């Protein structure tokens, strides 16, 4: 059995003649990965500005405004 010649042009794709993996879809995947990483970075910087994860600055509860008499009769 003879070995195939590497210089011969074969119509079937092989490992040596395989197309590049970079096309428009892989470029878009790379762009979306960079965008997600930037969003995570900005989210981290925003959270860190307000005291970090789990730390709360300011009031922890909000007071409920008093309802007027007309609204109170509708909801009761």
Low-confidence runs? none
Order of helices and strands: HH
Largest sheet geometry: none
Radius of gyration using CA atoms only: 31 Å
Fraction of residues in helix = 40-55%
Q: Compute the number of strand runs.
A: 0
Average the pLDDT over all residues and give the rounded result: 76
Inertia-based shape: elongated
Task: Provide the β-strand percentage band.
Answer: under 5%
Termini Cα gap: 93 Å
The number of helical runs is 2
Which structural class is indicated by helix and strand composition? Answer: mainly alpha
Transmembrane segments: 20-45
Keywords: Membrane, Transmembrane, Transmembrane helix
SSE inventory with pairings:
Layout: H1 24-49, H2 69-75
Keywords: Membrane, Transmembrane, Transmembrane helix
Transmembrane segments: 20-45
What can you see in these coordinates?
- The protein has 76 residues and is mainly alpha-helical.
- The protein has a domain at 22-51.
- It is 43% helix and 0% strand.
- It has 2 helices and no strands.
- The longest helix is centred in the middle third of the chain and has 26 residues, at 24-49.
- The radius of gyration is 31 Å and the shape is elongated.
